[in-house]
Amino acid sequence: MSKTYLSLCISLTLFLCVHFLSFSQKLPEANEHFKIGMAGYTYHKFDLDRTLDDLATNQVKYLCIKDFHLPFNSSEQEIAAFHQKLAEKGVTGYAVGPIYMRSKADVDNAFDYAKRVGVKLIVGVPNHELLPYINEKVKAYDFKYAIHMHGPDIALYPDADDIWSHIKDLDPRMGMCLDIGHTARNGKDPVADLEKYNDRIFDMHIKDVTAASKEGKSIEIGRGILDIPALVQMLRKTGYSGVCSLEHERNFDNPFSGIAESIGYFRGVIVATKQ
Amino acid sequence: MSKTYLSLCISLTLFLCVHFLSFSQKLPEANEHFKIGMAGYTYHKFDLDRTLDDLATNQVKYLCIKDFHLPFNSSEQEIAAFHQKLAEKGVTGYAVGPIYMRSKADVDNAFDYAKRVGVKLIVGVPNHELLPYINEKVKAYDFKYAIHMHGPDIALYPDADDIWSHIKDLDPRMGMCLDIGHTARNGKDPVADLEKYNDRIFDMHIKDVTAASKEGKSIEIGRGILDIPALVQMLRKTGYSGVCSLEHERNFDNPFSGIAESIGYFRGVIVATKQ
User: What span is annotated as the signal peptide, if there is one (chains A, B) (predicted)?
Assistant: First the structure.
């Protein structure tokens, strides 16, 4: 444990140094309840160093950790080294996932992993029959569990309404990751979803889509059909205090320009809707 | 001349094809009077092909032509080939410059070049004593002449007020390229400048800066001190119908992420201020 403590101290010192030395600029979201982050999946073709470089380029401070950047079987030392690397760029790993869970063993592993990583939010895709078991786990661990939605592509959890139907009678720590693109592709209104289910929305995937149907493709924020100003206003109205993580699912081999454009657009909307 | 005509026909056909085949998406600025473009200087380390690729990536349709992409001594055929290349990407070269002019010969060359290129707007940096001569040229050619400003860095034309003092008694076709960053670095308010001098603003350089002083550096739009929502509102109020050309002057060896972020931010502000 003392090694972990030492690592955390080093991480904190490095974080403060980076913070102090960087151009003292206030990000557009600095006065908002919500934060801007990145879904690790966006960088699934790139290693952690390249990922962190791009987060720094885009001044993104929150990362949802995917297992290809930090494997499930990572040791305590590897996890400490991971956090230190993030801290050097001023980045916080705020959650893990999405993690598919098809058995109780998968659930146990995921909760154990999240605990060792030191986060209290899991983004998951659990088989329906596992929900009662997960419901007990969130109580035992005092974690939040955000079910991931995937629109019309797969049957498991297409949209926010579907997830709500499965969690409404469960512990309030059972919620969802609102993917505004996928719920729109399933014919729903993500802004209305945000208002309706705000108590149970623990994470968000921000993106844009070319159409409100199965044929809709993920695209740079602002190029598609979603009403981003309305979304930002609803983030404020509901007081959403989690992370809005960009999940950019286009040009996976070279997503950097699209990421920058999307983050720029989102911040432009944040600033302009303050007026 | 028939060769030029043929080239223009081919260009037009290619433009229409590209236009027709591309994702039928309405750009945020589609319903505005102003357009979004790019100052060629942004890509001064890259050739025309790489430049046009990036304009396509960012859906930018207007380019202010710099001579490193189309040399002053280009032949009629080279100019036609240049326009054809632009048309293949749906890009219009709307002006030439900035061009430094230190003698009457420089002025003659610049006007001759612009005429051969087929644009009616020159962005220039002329010595003061040449202004009466240029004033006669704009009448003879029926061109517009936009004097480029450069803040506190060089004595010639630091800001909009200075340019106005030199052109106010000249032909109304004598105007300026409002560089919102440089005029701000000279202690002026670019939004007020836009309102004050809107009759004489024929081109704009959009950028952001870290400080309203000589020490201020060019930075991605939205990261600096400029009030971009107020600028966009003033573009609407004044009915500015020219191009807002991004002049990104940072990370010249790899400006692409910064360009995408800046264009994204600007478009986010355009959309959000419509509400």
Answer: none
Q: Does A36 touch chain B (CB under 8 A)?
A: no
Nearest to A75 by CA among A103, A116, A110: A116
β-pairing verdict for B144-148 and B174-179: parallel
Residue-wise pLDDT for B200-227, tens only, equals 999 999 999 999 999 999 999 999 999 9
Give the integer Cα–Cα distance in Å for B260 and A167: 40
Angstrom distances, CA of residue B136 to CA of B133, B144, B171, B200, B231 = 5, 12, 8, 17, 33
Query: Can you say whether the dihedral through the CA atoms of A141, A157, A233, B25 is positive or negative?
Result: positive
- Collect all residues with Cβ–Cβ distance below 8 Å to B107 and sequence separation of at least 6: B101, B126, B130, B133, B134, B137
In tens, the pLDDT along B117-138 reads 999 999 999 999 999 999 999 9
Q: Which of A54, A262, A267 to probe by mutation at the B interface, max B CB count within 10 Å?
A: A267
A126 cis-preceded (ω within 30 degrees of 0): no
Say whether residue A58 is in contact with chain B using an 8 A CB cutoff. yes
B210 touches chain A (CB under 8 A): yes
Q: Which two tokens stand for residue B258?
A: 């910064």
Interface confidence, given as ipTM, is 0.87
Task: State the pTM of this model.
Answer: 0.90
Residue B11 has pLDDT above 80, yes or no: no
SS3 A225: coil
Superfamily of domain B35-63+131-273: Divalent-metal-dependent TIM barrel enzymes (3.20.20.150)
Is A272 close to B267, i.e. CB distance below 8 A? no
Residue type, A273: T
Q: Which residue of B has its CA nearest to A220?
A: B264
**pLDDT tens digits, one per residue of A8-38:** 545 544 444 444 334 456 899 999 999 999 9
Mean of per-residue pLDDT scores for chain B: 92
